[in-house]
Amino acid sequence: MYNFSNVTTLYISAENGSDINMGFLPEEDGLGNGPLQTFKFALMQIANLRRVGMLQPITLKIMDSEVFVPETIVIDESVCGLTIEPYDMEKRTTITGSKKLTGFYESEFNGHKCFAVNIPEVKEGKWSFADLYVDGERAQLPRYPETGHIIPKQVEVKTKVLHEGSKWFIANDGDLDGIQNVEDCYLSFTHFWVDEHTPIESFDRKTNKVTLKYRSGYHCYSESPEDSSTMEYYLENVPEKFSKPNQWFLDKKEGILYYIPKNNSQTVDNISVYAPVISMLVDIHGDAENGKKANNIRLRNLDFRYTDGGYYSDQILDTATMHTENVEPKATDGQSANKAPGTIRFIGAHGCFMENCSVKNFGHYGVSIEDGCDNIHILGNTFYDGGAGGIKINGADAEGEAFNLTYGNEISDNEISFCGRKYFAGCGVLLMHSFENTVSHNDIHDLFYSGISVGWVWGYKPTVCRDNIIEKNHIYNLGDGLLSDMGGIYLLGYQPGTIVRGNLIHDVNARHYGGWGIYTDEGSSYITVENNICYNFSNNAYHQHFGSMNTVRNNIFAFSTDGILRVSRPEMHLSIIFERNIVVADNSPMYAVNYHGQFNHAIAGSKNVFYDYGRDKTYLMESDTVQAELPEFSAKHNMDCDSVVANPLFKDVDNRDFTLSPNSPAIKLGFVPFNLNDAGVRK
């Protein structure tokens, strides 16, 4: 007999279920035991069981292959011990935050043949969306210019103070002449390490003055187009540029969506188009006020799809601080798109799992683990085509409440790729105020900014960030020459016990500067960096802005355009212990001078092997006035006195096989061979 005292499985079907059922059976039996219909009612049933003391684990099985959720699935602290998964574990269930659009017809817009569909809710002002997904791919808004960017003639604020941004700029004559309604477009621009986005408040055609709705978060003043501060802008949602395959334009006044098919196989009858309704699909949260956490929630074998990425930073910053008097909204929320929400959110949660799921075609971050979370496990998932980044972890800072501390989480065996498609500064994994986390065996690639970022305090101020393990990740193809100041692995602030080991990092290419492999930024201290292989960078394989007592040992650093190792800011203490590393180049120095043209003496180097494959001599340091080989360098700087210049004898350096010969001189100096065949997702 079915009853709630012994139930361990409930069934749900949006297509065939009913919320007047009990949910005991996958199909109707005429007695009301068939599947429920909505997540909201199913979760209410489970919460009621918990309130009367029925605490047995419950699995909620989804009967449908696809479920559209018009509002976020909310799982709070009253629900515990719950697994959500497909009915048939050999198949998948897709949970989508979009409506599927049908009724397309052939049409023409801006002189180009296209598909069109009427959307009454848009015409009535009840619905709008910032993203569109067609046949499983992100469609593109028409933009101007079609490629590249435009540089303004003049910006409002002529200062180099970092956060003194501009509210307007003057366009060059002719730059915007071809755009009829500039105010209906979105303005996006890149500079420094961020991208900024804002509607346009007004455009004066007589003066070419463009006034932004939101002031830039960073200054835009530059003395040369090559300055990293230069505003490199473009317009999106430009109807006059609607002309390319896979472009879309939403005529809000008429309520018509136009789309140019990407190939001849797409027809008005077979095209699959999803327009987002919500940005967050699942919200798992506790009750901070009463000190209660949501716990033991497990998501398995689910595909999360098609969420909206339409936000400006003022809309997602903490409203308790953002909209107070004299606080002006900005066009960016700063480094790493750090305020962007997650498609799946954990806040005030304990002991939860997300396993073997995929998050694709999403608007912001794939997952956010926020205040008050511990022992959250994100394992074996795929994150693809995200508007911002993959996974974000953030909790209370050093002055925060104990309940809100976030720690002890695991991010392993995930593939995070082709994210930052809308907000370029999104990271693969962004770990901010948090400690005792493990980020391991992830494949992170094809992003526009850093792969893994750890820490959120600049300089030597107090922080909770410590004892994080970053190991065996494969990180590659980052930057694409779009933003500056990034690292395959980026670290920030005082972090005792944090270890970066066994990572394979390669091919990072920055816009103006800062295409780095491992990057210890401001105040990075007491971090161990070991057994990593880093190669092919537009700047340095290892770069430290400034920090203290970091140990960098037993790594292979190879092939950087701007020198292999750089410490940018000299300080009156030991910054790096640099020992038993193999450092190789192709016509570049081993140690780069800092930005003042000086060598930083805060490095203790010993037992390293240096070699330049590109020329007869290996220079430890090189500038416009100095070329120093090892003997001269050691004598002058009293370091690397027991290091050598020698071919390390890699197996196939041209193809980046860094396997060492048993006769390698590095081994004789104490280098311990390792291989990274298991870096990345374990198969």
Provide a concise account of the structure shown.
This protein is mainly beta. The protein has 6 helices and 62 strands.
Structure explained in plain terms:
This protein is mainly beta and 683 residues long. It folds into five domains: 1-64, 2-Layer Sandwich (so0334 like fold), CATH 3.30.1910; 76-97 and 277-310 and 335-449; 98-142 and 242-276, no CATH class; 154-240; 508-683, no CATH class. Helix content is 5%, strand content 36%. The chain has six helices and 62 strands. The strands form nine sheets. The chain has a 15-stranded parallel β-sheet that branches. Strands 3-6-24-28-31-34-37-40-43-47-51-54-57-60 form a 14-stranded parallel β-sheet, with no helix packed on it. Strands 4-22-25-29-32-35-38-41-44-48-52-55 form a twelve-stranded parallel β-sheet. The longest helix is centred in the N-terminal third of the chain and has 13 residues, at 39-51. The radius of gyration is 27 Å and the shape is globular. Pfam families: Beta_helix. This is Right-handed parallel beta-helix repeat-containing protein. InterPro entries: Beta_helix, PbH1, Pectin_lyas_fold, Pectin_lyase_fold/virulence. Residues 344-481 form the Right handed beta helix domain.
